[in-house]
Design a protein that fits this description.
The protein contains six helices and no strands. The chain is mostly helical and 140 residues long. Helix 2 crosses helix 6 and helix 4 crosses helix 6. The longest helix has 22 residues. The relative contact order is 0.16.
Length: 140
Amino acid sequence: MKYLPVFILSAASIVAAATAGFAQQTPSFGFHYLQAEQAAGQKLFNDRCAVCHAPKRGQRFGPSLNGVVGRSAGSVAGFAYSDALKKSGLVWTEDNLRKWIADSASTVPHTLMPHVSFSDPAEQIYVIEYLKTLKGQAAR
């Protein structure tokens, strides 16, 4: 009986070490979940946003969204933004992007951006996770 606490501590140490070793050798579930969100967001972006917005370079009907997360609204050079958006003072944080893609007209009244809103909170998350990946090349 006097060895039982030592045995329990030893067994717990072995389990902890094995768990830590396993965790180091296998990718985390969170990483795969993030990749899935980004892939879903890219699909939604391609289906509903890419007709107007270039994801990485160039402009279509709307400005490039490369580097949009953290950027000031209405700040891509050479694009004709509405006065309302230029004067909004918005920075494209995740929260502001979520509001914008849910209802741009309510977020910034008198904006010129017509779009199909993303009312599903999950879709909003997916699109924002994808937008966060668009930061490799300078917008033109």
